[in-house]
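Risk register update: the risk of archive-format incompatibility is retired. Evidence:
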Amino acid sequence: MDNIAIKTDERLAQVLLENNRSNTLSRTIFKQLTDRLAIYTPLNNDLLNAIAQTLSLLNDFHVGEQTGLYRCARLLITHSRQMQDRHDLQAWENDLILLLNLEFQKTGLNLSGHQKRLENYQKQKMLVEKERGSPNTETASNIITFFDQEQDVEKTAIFIGQLLSNKTWGNQVFLTISQKSILIKRYDLLEKLIKQAGERVLSKQSAPLKEDILLNKIATLGSYYHEMGQYQEYLSLIKWSKNIFKNSNLLDYHEGICKIALGDLDGWRLFSVRRKMVKLPSLIQNLKTWDGHSPVENLLIWWPEGAGIGGEIMRLIFLPNILIKAKKVGIICDTRLHSVLMQKFPQIKCYPYSMLTLGTANNYDAEIDLISLTQFFLTPSYQAQPILSTNTRADVNVIGPLLSTRKIRCGISWFTPNKRSQIQRSIPAHILSNWIDSLDGVEFYALQHSLDDCPEFELHNCKINYLVNAEKDIDGLLHLAADMDLIITIGNSTAHLTGALGIPTLVLLPQKPRFQWGIKGINMPFYKNMKLIRQEIPNDWNGCLLQVSKYIQELKGLNS
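Archived output:
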């Protein structure tokens, strides 16, 4: 270690030891410690000893601080494994075993105390079964953690069911589960747990459970079904849950997601309950809520910042229908959409998100949120129509020469910077590059966010022209897209923008797409000239691109 690193470790060790005396650890100290453990360089002995002492004093700290110490201990294990220097742990292995319960088993480390810990948990289990007094949160947590490690789901569910039936333990067990990250990946067990709890509530076999805790777990399981694309199971869970909770906005919202995914348009009515689940901005609290049918003089359409530009376009597609009912319309939306919307509809006025907190609505007599619009207008007889258009712009002269070709012109967007769904939704650059190389007579133009987000783009020498930054220049993207014969895109904002422009668009979707794309079918009811191409096999983009090739061949035939 260099001198600077040694001094940094020594200073952090000193701070830890000083805080140990007062049994308080601030968030700043936790951040410093976790940041240091995330750097895989050898730890100074002073710092190791200070961490060991801090961990050994776990029970003297507040519950919130204990949670932070658990995390630090796990990071220390990872650090030790990365440095291949595990002997540093041996001096205080027993303290770590006490702290982490079965965490060592999860990390794959072979520690001598493993069997002893299991025996200890068995003793705790027997103790709880005989418990007659007030339950101890730590004991309940330890037992549930122990059973969560076992493979016998039935035995686990039966035992937890017994705890739930106990008047003293019922709420405590759910409280424990809701506060810890256990069972989150054991959805088979979580489902049994929820069902047992619900049945006991219905039959009045147990003390009333706290509704918010049970609902939270139902939502957790529902979100799992959503991610897995298991919407029938998802819908069954929600319908069953409604026998317990008769009037729940959360359950209506989840039922709406299921129905939308399954192609039931009534799902949008249920989904619109989401407005009841957010704090309404003060700007609209004195306005009446529009019913979607009655004529209105001045209507304000809004939604909080962060809804996403694609989601906004998907709802604003109904503007022509709205303008039949409303004489004047104001829209609070992403500023990047202002010019393109007012260009098509000069009778509307657009405002930035800041108006929700800083503006006044004196010129409006009714309001409606973007989410609620769909339930009013998306009917089986709805006829989609474009809402965006383009006019001549100075820089079209720059783009024009590049487009002066007899080749098929395809706009393409293949990558999302969204970290959560990047792997599932993005097409790997090497697959895209190989596919493009296999085509003749086609020129590709990127309708993509900054290529800084796509490091593989240049690595695989993708033959795609990059002319506009789709994230910053929506107007430029639309002008470029308007000159294309075909748009090929994943399910992102580009799909919504080109769909609203009316350009023929092929949307490539993973096998388990977001609910708004549905789970089957090739049409998207919001957009007239859009076709959906779905993966038949998970992560198989080659199959999707093969279908795109057929569309391109058809275009070549039409242009010849």
